[in-house]
Specification:
Elements (H helix, E strand, L loop, with lengths): L7 H29 L14 H25 L6 H17 L11 H13 L9 H5 L6 H10 L17 H13 L4 H25 L8 H4 L2 H9 L4 H16 L3 H12 L9 H5 L6 H24 L7 H7 L6 H11 L8 H20 L7 H18 L21 H4 L1 H4 L5 H7 L4 H25 L15
């Protein structure tokens, strides 16, 4: 039995007070974003939008979050009413999301593709068969598509990369179709689906923390993260569609159900391809159980084949979003700049430097994952760490690095809050400065400098912590379970 001393009460009051102040500050940032988002309407020229002001506010929110992560959360482990603190954290995070309904997505338009794909999928039309541009040109002779085109209004016209067919696999298409069923071509209906999925993500994080005997309030590393809130509820990106099956796979793996975990991981891979990198962590314990290993591999393989078959049937060519993304897209990646520079030093042969750099990045990611799974997991938290390493390798070494990709690692930071990875919350908002700089004709040299300003601090902190052997979230650090 723990006896509360007189010093505990003032400490609890201090902790709760600053949780409320921090939550209110982040909620004010969310309200400010929602209130000013109309200045980022599609019709307004990029050069006329207050992008730098937005970036400043976004970074202020990131700084508040880091103060919570690095200062307040460690002080919260010994509070006498952890459930009250948990509820406070959940309510504030939910409020930050709800105020985003009705806001204009700031500098993002991917949701137009989601709304259109959802309409096609809901009507049983293969969303990977036709590009939006081919439909706008009248090249597609289908009465249902013609009816949807008329119903869509400006949605179809505003789809980014309209000459490409959809890059979103089967699982997101089901979510898009659900939003269409709720209300056709409605951003708010899609946001409602995202909110439910985000709540599901939070529930799975809490289950994971409970299984690992971690403080439940550490879910704030995800639930209060400004990037998560902005990129999901304002920008309406589809990442929660990925996170729910991915975290379900991890929870099942922690509970020693690798076959079911393999099925969940396959669903995650049918949201975005990269979660196949988590399969070695799931299958590693089964190397001495060949029957279960075969069952796990067969389940994952059959599910992936079934869910990707419509994509395969639509054929891969230059109009395929999958081909374009994997062979051409590149965005604000410092690591890829290094790999490309190294590739340029090699005499030209079969592969041009960009392709060689991509293959090198893929090889480094695969090598990292395989090396990380060379031995059996020591315990359940080690399994979580392997999932984190797979997601972090994909994020940090990918040719394309976008703010919403941070969500790939955000749930795992609730268990292993690496300082360098958390620092991304402060640095990633600088991505949006590229729009302002490009619109005003800034030289490419300055754009490249901004890439390094974003990523160099992250790499330096990660390198320092690796060199000094710091690994947060170990069992010895978590002396109190918030439950």
């Amino acid at each position: 039995m723990t006896v509360q001393t007189r010093s505990d009460k003032p400490n609890d009051r201090f902790v709760f007070k600053f949780w409320i102040i921090s939550g209110a500050a982040l909620l004010c940032c969310a309200l400010a974003l929602a209130a000013t988002s109309s200045q980022f309407a599609y019709e307004i020229e990029v050069a006329s939008r207050p992008i730098f002001q937005f970036v400043t506010g976004y970074m202020i929110a990131g700084a508040v979050f880091l103060a919570v992560a690095w200062v307040l959360l460690p002080r919260s482990l010994t509070v006498q009413k952890p459930l009250s603190l948990l509820m406070l954290m959940i309510v504030f995070g939910l409020a930050m999301r709800i105020v985003m309904f009705g806001s204009v997505p700031v500098q993002e338009n991917d949701y137009y593709r989601y709304l259109w794909d959802g309409a096609l999928t809901a009507h049983g039309i293969n969303p990977w068969a036709y590009s939006p541009q081919s439909i706008l040109d009248g090249s597609v002779d289908d009465p249902t598509i013609a009816q949807l085109k008329a119903q869509a209004g400006t949605v179809l016209e505003r789809i980014n990369y309209g000459d490409l067919r959809s890059v979103y696999p089967a699982v997101p298409q089901a979510a898009f179709a659900l939003a269409y069923t709720i209300k056709p071509f409605s951003l708010e209906a899609w946001r409602g689906v995202l909110l439910l999925l985000d709540l599901g993500t939070l529930g799975l994080i809490l289950m994971l923390l409970s299984s690992l005997n971690r403080p439940l309030v550490w879910a704030a590393f995800y639930w209060w993260n400004p990037i998560v809130i902005k990129e999901v509820m304002n920008s309406a990106h589809m990442e929660p569609v990925l996170l729910v099956p991915l975290l379900a796979a991890l929870v099942l793996c922690v509970k020693a159900r690798p076959v079911a975990a393999s099925g969940a991981a396959a669903l995650a891979a049918a949201a975005k391809v990269w979660p196949v990198l988590t399969l070695p962590a799931i299958w590693r314990p089964l190397l001495k159980q060949p029957t279960r290993l075969v069952a796990a591999m067969a389940l994952a393989g059959l599910l992936c084949l079934a869910l990707y078959w419509p994509v395969i049937a639509a054929q891969f060519d230059r109009s395929s979003g999958f081909i374009a993304f994997s062979t051409e897209w590149e965005r604000i990646s410092a690591s890829f700049l290094i790999l490309t520079a190294m590739a340029n030093l090699i005499p030209q042969s079969v592969l041009e430097p960009g392709s060689l750099a991509r293959l090198t990045a893929a090889a480094l990611i695969a090598a990292t994952v395989l090396f990380n799974n060379r031995t059996p997991a020591v315990n359940a938290s080690d399994t979580v760490h392997r999932f984190l390493i797979a997601a972090a390798a994909m994020l940090l070494l990918s040719p394309v690095q976008l703010p919403w990709y941070f969500m790939w690692i955000a749930p795992f930071l609730c268990v292993f809050p690496y300082r360098g990875l958390l620092l991304i919350t402060l640095m990633f908002p600088l991505y949006y400065a590229f729009f302002e700089l490009t619109a005003t004709g800034v030289e490419e040299t300055w754009l490249l400098a901004l890439v390094w300003i974003m990523w160099l601090p992250v790499w330096l902190v990660l390198a320092f912590d690796w060199w000094t052997g710091k690994r947060p979230g170990t069992d010895t650090c978590m002396v109190h379970k918030a439950s």
